[in-house]
# Entry
Amino acid sequence: MTDKNSNTNYYSRPGNNRDPINNDRPDTADEIKEQTEAQKVKSESAVADLDGGDLKINPKTDRNKLMEVKNLHIAYNTDRGKLHAVNGVDFSIYNNETTAVIGESGCGKTTLCLALLKLTEKNARYLSGEIIYQGDEQEKNILKLDEGELRKLRWSDISLVFQASQSVFNPVIKIKEHFIDTVRAHQRGLSAKKILKRARNLLEQMQLDADRVLSSYAHELSGGMKQRTLIALSFILEPKIVIFDEPTTALDVLTQRKILDLLKTIKEKNDFSLIIITHDLAISAELADNVATMYAGKIVEYGPVESIYYQPRHPYSYGLIKAVPKIVAGEGEEGLTSITGKPPDLIEIQEQCSFAPRCDFASSKCYNTIPSLNNIAEGHQVACFNYQEVPSIKDGSHVQNSD
Amino acid sequence: MIAQYGMSMSEARARASALYALDLDAPLIQQYFSYMSRMIRGDMGQSIRSPGVRVSWIILARLPWTLFTVGTGLILSCLIGVFLGTISAFRRDKWYEPIITGTSSIISAIPDFLIGIFLIIIFGIITWFGRSEPLIPIHSMRGTSTPGMSWDDGIFYLWDILVHGFLPITTYALAQIGMWVLLMKGSTTSTLNKDYVRLAEARGLKNSKIMSRYVSRNALLPIATEFAMRMGFILGGSLIIEQLFVYEGLGLELLNAVHNRDYPVMQGIFLVITSCIVFANLFAELLYGILDPRTRIRRSGSNDQN
# Structure
């Protein structure tokens, strides 16, 4: 993460906001593989390309940093002691890119995302670190904002689609009141008619019967409709960053499919950065530009989605990908592999790689030193000493099953 | 009656039939229907103790006083209780929160007649700060108003009513206030943890808006039901307190009727109390339907779009 800035500067091309590769994303595994190879070659000879790099090959042309999390530590005060839910996280959100945060339950994903809005529970303590947000004006540290400034920032700059989208609407007021309340909290004096016009437009983009949804109470909508309504609500103030906390967890596969498609379309039409927290690798493979793997309150690997899914460098990312079940197992293929053991206790932090006890590649060094996140390729960072031993994923079907 | 007044069987029988205007020789079912038909017309018979006085007159004369004192007490305790309960839920980290909650628990555990006795001692017996008389001249506080005064005295009469009703109202209010505080605190605390409150926070809504529209609005649902149900017990709960303050309401009348075995009066008052509870329950149901849209029946069929 440390030399990310310099990379960004090398390739910055003002005025080119959309990256060309993204618009025609490769469809087959082979294509992606080729590309990753190309990228690797590219990054190795980065200096040589300074003067005349081909834009078509290099996808990361203009990465404007929108948000930067620096060395963030968050702990919860519990009866047993301090629970370190987020334990030294560094990462950045870039303009118009989608970042997926993956990892198993309880690894700090949700805490991290709540912290981006300073919405964590009352017993959470921000031990150290900063979250720098580059809005329209001066950059500001979200953790240092007072209540009033935070209130203004929330939803108008960063909106958050909650994990429990089934109970996020006030049961005693109509859906349209939620839209009106939200807009009026940020733009005073706007007429209800104008607000509802905007809401209607968004709801129709989500393929909902806008008028009926607006005049309904939450309990009159189905689960998928509520989820899509919440997504529409999250765009009402045209935020720069939208965070989706497990957007499709509680839904059946067909509804998931529909919501993913809608998200893709809305992402193509609008400029915003998306953060998706998920443990569904298929979703992140489909939507994300970058993937951050979290383990025990730390980001252990961060990189472009193609590299991580075909050449993961952290044993944990590798394990996660190998643990995705296939609907039809081919002959001679290896079966489903799980990661043995369980995540460490976040209350007692030890001087070792937190994944070492579960790791197949662990060496003695892993048990007495905490690995830091290091650049191993252009935009690809990993916190592992033995990353070169991690094999690549041969079969692409792991991440293709949702296509 | 035979045992009480030493009447002969035939005398008692004659008297009873005169009072109830019943034909005691008629079959039971017929007696029942004639009683019911008179009841529907508002004729509840006459008092045994004071012959010639209609039960319905007695009830109509006493009912307003009980409604006034118990009703005022209920409304006051509910308003103050809801206010304090909301505060103690929102300000759980403040020093006064344990005081509010603790006091409420203690008060809600004291029976209402004890509170009444304490109030009499505090206001009517102890002479505070070297004054020669207690705060309220308790001996002239019997009854609902000073004898001889009426609506002709205008504002003075109103004041007189308030002074006479002060101690019973305070007793009713104090006896229930703890319950309201605890109920509202619990309800608000659980609402505060709801996902829609957190999302409202994430949406950047103002705190005052979140409190009124998202928290209190939902937290008040169980309170409203409880209030409507309590209204039913307004009349029944006044027995001991009215006896304590010699306040001439329905409760005192019922107690006297029980002492004197004045069956028609007892029957009439019980009927009023019972119907009061039944209607309060009905009202609670209807009220909930208005306040909580989830309990409403959908008028237009809505089809899922999934």
